[in-house]
Amino acid sequence: LHPADPGLYAVWNGLIADLARAPLLTTANLDDRRRPDAWALRVARLDEDAAVDVVASAVVPVAEALLWGEAVARGALNFSAPWYAHLADAALLQLGDLFFPGTRLSQNFPHNAPVWRAALHARVGAFDPARDPYADWALWVAARRAGAVFHLLPEPTELYLVAPASYQRRG
After folding, report:
1. Which of 36, 29, 81, 26 is nearest to 58 (CA)?
2. Number of CB atoms found within 10 A of residue 17's CB
3. What's the N-to-C CA distance of the chain in angstroms?
4. Whole-prediction pTM value?
5. Closest alpha carbon to 65 in 108, 109, 107, 34
6. In this model, does residue 88 exceed pLDDT 80?
7. Which ranges constitute the DSSP H helices of 27-113?
8. How far apart are CA 46 and CA 116, in angstroms?
């Protein structure tokens, strides 16, 4: 065990550098839930097109941590307003599309549970722990600037728990 917490992004970088051997990578937060076929859909899209570097889906925000099947059974999902569905073709995403129109506010696409090619890190580097808590966002911006191709699965496959006490929403 580490004598001190190195931080999320330093842990991710260590895992990628020291343990990852697969050509595809992802992050999976314990409070986010996904449709049973979510990973398979992302991998299939990357397998279909070698030019695509990152795949994510539209996301349904939820206030309670339920499994996908539980949320569907309870009618707890608002499929009428998923996050990022308005990005009609993320494969053509421009750097400016990563921000809400007319603002400097980030849309933080690809948000939770993207799958990306491990080779992307050779082009854009690792997550920058100095940018905590938004080092993943900074990596996606760098990737887009380097010409990475993003693809959006328009049908939501992810649930994102919007928790008021989460790391990003504290003070």
Report:
1. 81
2. 10
3. 29
4. 0.84
5. 34
6. no
7. 38-48, 68-74
8. 8
